[in-house]
Amino acid sequence: MRIALSLLSLRPGQVGGAETYVRALVRHLPGVAAGDELLLVLDRDLDREIEGRGWTKVVMPYGARELVARRIAEAYTPWRDRRSEAVLAAARPDVTLFPQQSIFPHRAPGPAVLTAVDVQHLVVPGHFGLFDRTFRPRVYPRSMERAARVIAISGFTKGTLVERCGIDPAKVTAIPFGVEPRSAASGRGAPSRLVQGPYLYYPAATWPHKAHAALFRAYAALRGRGAIAERLVLTGQRTPLWERSLVPLARALGIERDVVHLGFVTFDEVYRLYAGAAAVVFPTTFEGFGLPVLEAVQAGRKVVTSRLAVFDEIGVPRAAQADFDRPDEVLAALAQPGPTRLLREPATWEQVARRTIEVLRGAATGQGASAAR
Question: In what order do the strands lie in the sheet with 2-6?
Fold first, then answer.
């Protein structure tokens, strides 16, 4: 069977856990797809970055900037990207996985499987700017309708799709994100040299739902009364919210010198930062999954999360959850003995890859779901 994985939506350094997921599939699918030929679909710029061992590359005859223009044109106009369709048709895939929420080109040949990684726009649309509030409704629903099968990254995400989008539950398979085995995750080297401990660590882009403001207020309250001594270390994309709102807030709270933002760092550096952290905090108000929580636990760290259904699903103990608008709850969670142990054993990325292959083969043969339109 010829199985294709589309990386046409991948923008390195901009999509957090979704990028980790895509790269894990690239790494692990060749080891579990015995007898299948794997095709990696990507643009010319990404071709220079992704090694693709075990894959046959299908490279589009354009770079990332032109690709973005083509995706926007298909989304907002009647124009059809026949050039991209032709490249895919020549590759003759039996099934194609689109791992980042949208199918592009929309009329890609053959059955399609879509991974739903972000349903936040269905629950809190006000968190998005004008482009996302118009692009997502144009692209995401028709991609889910077009797909033969849909993979959801958690039971919570599947439930949201079924409830709010009216998708047949039989069409959706929940395959939660995975992690590296504990031995590998906890043995990735010494703590980071970018910052000296002790510190609390939060790896997240500064989007509104990541709740950096609530974290700053709780941290300032606890720091101000001497309840904690650690600095607060942040990594991830600095969105416009950082300079516009969060830097002034840190200054007003008197914690500007205690907050260190390292910007975007490599995946290996994130693990080194886990290794040196007194605790990893995760105050987010919405998550489809919450991959950094699993990563931090696998790295042997104490974690403190907000109270979300998806954190219950992945097994975060209630004692490790807190309302970040209540500093005393955060302090109580930080006081719990570490490292944190989940109540459920997470899947490994290899197991995720095996389940994904099963869904792809089922879609290619028309088993378990309707054929793609």
Answer: 56-59, 37-42, 2-6, 95-98, 112-116, 149-152, 172-174
Q: Compute the chain's Rg from CA coordinates.
A: 21
Q: How many CB atoms lie within 10 A of CB 342?
A: 17
CA dist list (Å): 263 to 21, 201, 205: 21, 13, 9
CA distance 362 to 373: 16
**Look-up of token digits 């223009």:** 69
Tell me how many degrees the CA angle 365-371-372 measures, rounded to the nearest 5.
Answer: 120
Question: Mean pLDDT of successive 10-residue segments in the chain (373 residues)?
Answer: 95 79 95 95 95 95 96 95 97 97 94 89 70 82 94 93 91 94 61 90 94 98 96 94 97 97 91 95 93 93 96 96 98 95 95 97 76 34
Q: What angle (nearest 5°) sits at the alpha carbon of residue 304, between those of residues 272 and 263? A: 40
| Rounded Cα distance, 269 and 159, in Å | 34
Q: Are 19 and 12 in contact (CB under 8 A)?
A: yes
CA distances from 107 to 27, 79, 104, 150, 370 (A): 27, 12, 7, 17, 17
Residue whose pair of structure tokens reads 């995400």 in the numeric block: 157
Which residue from 363, 367, 368 is spatially nearest to 2, judged by alpha carbons? 363
Let me know how many helices (H) and strands (E) the chain has, helices first: 16, 12
The Cα 189–Cα 196 span in angstroms is 15
CA 64 from chain centre, in angstroms, equals 20
Residues in Cβ contact with 294 at an 8 Å cutoff, skipping those fewer than 6 apart: 177, 178, 179, 314, 342, 346
Neighbouring residues of 240: CB distance < 8 A, sequence distance ≥ 6: none
Residue 154: phi and psi, rounded to 5, are -165, 165
Judge whether 94 and 1 are in contact, CB under 8 Å: yes
Which has the closest alpha carbon to 96: 5, 195, 223, 204?
5
